[in-house]
Design brief:
This protein is mainly α. The chain has one domain (2-136). 88% of the residues lie in helices and 0% in strands. The longest helix is centred in the middle third of the chain and has 33 residues, at 35-67. The radius of gyration is 16 Å and the shape is elongated. Keywords: Membrane, Transmembrane, Transmembrane helix. It comes from Nocardioides potassii. This is DUF1772 domain-containing protein. The chain crosses the membrane at residues 6-27, 48-66, 72-99.
Amino acid sequence: MNTWLLLVAGAHLGFQLTVDLVVYPALRDVGPEDWTRAHAAHSRRITPVVGLVYVPLVLVLGWAAVAEPDDVGTWVAVAGGLLAVGTTAAVAAPVHGRLSSAGEDRRAALLDRLTRADRVRTVGAVVCTVGALLVAL
């Protein structure tokens, strides 16, 4: 279980850093004339990747909570993972929904909110990875 936890936490961290440092800045650079097409393409492409990262993350965190409930690293990993997944469900996904139909006048504020949410998700991914490292030690 320790190896799986470290693997999924590391994959999640890599995914979050890529979105935070590459994907969202590139999306922010899209001009108004290309916005609808670019955001739709982003949403279509990122959705399966989110599933590939988040489903194993949630499953392995659940497994870790059952298999290693006395290890503090387990709960650090679970807390970080839940922070990231919860922020995705409560903030990032709804903001993406609003972005798909937002006018140019609202887009910058929504992108700012999405960027802040993504920073929280990245912190969650870092905390999750630290917890996984603690379990592995």
